[in-house]
Amino acid sequence: MNEEIRNKIETLLDQHRVMTIATLRPDGWPQATTVGYVNEGLTLYFLCGLESQKAANLAQDDRVSLTIDHDTPQVMEITGLSMAARAQAVADRAEAEKVLRMLPLKYPEQVSLPGPMPTPEQVRIFRVMPTVISVLDYSKGFGHAELVTC
């Protein structure tokens, strides 16, 4: 991938903090859920409950699809990302603690949280590694997307 498209992807990732992630349920139906995320370059992280449906789905099949975008008043201003990726549970405690320190930094305007940040043992943290990224930019034409393989 060239540097220009990588920079565009990383800028979009850095500008947002919410994504919709789709996992596959055991019955084959996709399940889309909105989650907060942090990223380090093209690697994304999100957390969920230990017993959540997402965690159960990902234990069976690590393939995910996700979107990152925002609402805009003008159709031709739509930008966003769509990804096919693999999500693995973070097992390394140091990596998990780093992610938990990164999360509050995505919300600098937060006055207070309802409680302390969870510990790595209280949540499931997933590392999302994209395999294909579609970069949507309507300013280049209606429905314009650039497909990037990672």
UniProtKB/TrEMBL annotation:
Taxonomic path: Bacteria, Pseudomonadati, Pseudomonadota, Alphaproteobacteria, Hyphomicrobiales
Keyword Mitochondrion found: no
GO molecular function annotations of the record: coenzyme F420 binding; oxidoreductase activity, acting on the CH-CH group of donors
Protein name: Pyridoxamine 5'-phosphate oxidase N-terminal domain-containing protein
Gene3D superfamilies the record matches: Electron Transport, Fmn-binding Protein, Chain A
InterPro entries: F420H2_bilvrd_red/Heme_oxyg, HutZ, Pyridox_Oxase_N, Split_barrel_FMN-bd
Assigned keywords, A-Z: Oxidoreductase
Residue ranges annotated for the Pyridoxamine 5'-phosphate oxidase N-terminal domain, each copy included: 7-130
GO cellular component: cytosol
Domain of life: Bacteria
Residues in the signal sequence: none
UniProt xrefs under Pfam families: PNPOx_N
Organism field: Mesorhizobium amorphae CCNWGS0123
